[in-house]
Amino acid sequence: MRTGAARRILPVVLAAIALAGCDGDDAGMAPATATGEPGAGGALGWALAERPRDLDPLAADTRSEQLVTRQVHEPLTESLVGPFGDVRRLPGLSLTANGSADDTIWRFKLRPGVRFQDGTPFNAGAVLANGRRWLTTPAGRRLMPELFAVDSPRPNLVRFFVEQPDPLFPERLAAPQTGIVSPRALRPSSGEGAVLRSQERSGTGPFELRGSDGAAVLVARNLAWWGTERELGPALDQVEFRIVAEPAERFALLEGGDVQLAEGLGPEQAAEARADPLLSVLPGPGADLGLERSVRGVDSAQEVPSLSGVWITRVGTD
Fold first, then answer.
1. Backbone angles phi and psi of 47, in degrees to 5
2. Average pLDDT for residues 145-163, to the nearest whole number?
3. What is the per-residue burial (b if ≥16 Cβ within 10 Å, else e) of 158-174?
4. What are the pLDDT digits (tens) for 230-245?
5. How far from 300 is each of 109, 281, 297, CA to CA, in Å?
6. Within its chain, how far is the Cα of 234 from the centroid?
7. Of 37, 45, 32, 38, the residue nearest 86 (C-alpha)
8. CATH number of the domain located at residue range(s) 90-196 in this protein
9. Regarding the domain with residue range 43-73+205-312, which homologous superfamily does it belong to in the CATH classification?
10. Are residues 71 and 219 in contact, defined by beta-carbon separation less than 8 angstroms?
């Protein structure tokens, strides 16, 4: 339970973090401020147990890496819901997924009018570059060993060929590791054996990477995200992922209102959170997720959620 003086209602202000190796182009970026009102943006603090070392989706092995890169890079197949109780479920980058009679050929119709954050059009060529990367890199082969070819019979249609019948193949393309990256960010851009040379502005997702250092990673709203005009969010202006190794320290930040979500609570911290009327607990992979009750839109059924539909109803309490 909370001790000491009563917490005051305070806005959360997250400072911009300098990009590693950046030349200061973002120095004038104004931090977002949470108003505590639904739909008014706001900033979310999330305490992670470990530092994301690689934000290339294909190399995202840990929970923290997958959580962060998922906000920037969208997988080909997903089902999206909007914030504030929106019950619609809309497809993501792929509008439809149709398999052959034996489920060895899968056809994906692509959403038109989408661009990567660097301005590159999202189209069949971009998906083919990612598909070639999956086929020709060790990480890609480990991820999809059954995939043996990919082509595009039409500009808005991509086909994937798998060696064995796989009725769950579209679900595999919903994994965070299959986040689609801009061909412009790949070296070479064809995708053949490619490495991700630039993580900045390399996705189509609702958030852009704004900064990363040893203590935190900052993502901010992508103002040009295709989902915004469809009222899918993002409901937050920015998210700061703070790296805090100890469960007790992560819980202390949550209890004190310094973050709104804390990853990987131990049994003792989870019990304390459940006993606190201002906190809640969601079961997570391997450990519990603690959060302020003011946070809405976190889906406990999603192993790695998109935060576009998450918002804060208020920050702090009397």
1. -90, 120
2. 96
3. bbbebeeebeebbebbb
4. 999 999 999 999 999 9
5. 29, 10, 9
6. 11
7. 38
8. 3.90.76.10
9. Periplasmic binding protein-like II (3.40.190.10)
10. yes
Residue in the structure block whose two tokens are 């401020």: 33
Nearest to 204 by CA among 102, 306, 301, 297: 306
- Give the pLDDT of residue 67: 94
Q: Tokens 């899918």 belong to which residue?
A: 232
pLDDT band at 40 (very low <50, low <70, confident <90, very high): low
Distance CA 199, CA 60 (A): 12
At a CB cut-off of 8 Å and minimum separation 6, what does 299 contact?
305, 309
- Contact between 220 and 32 under an 8 Å Cβ cutoff? The reply is yes
Cβ count within 10 A of residue 93:
22
Q: Model confidence over 122-136: pLDDT tens digits?
A: 999 999 999 999 999
Residue 219 makes CB contacts below 8 A (sequence gap 6+) with: 68, 71, 72, 207, 208, 209, 210, 238, 239, 241
Q: Is the CB of residue 72 less than 8 Å from the CB of residue 208? A: yes
- Say which amino acid occupies 233: G
Give the domain ranges of the chain. Answer: 43-73+205-312, 90-196
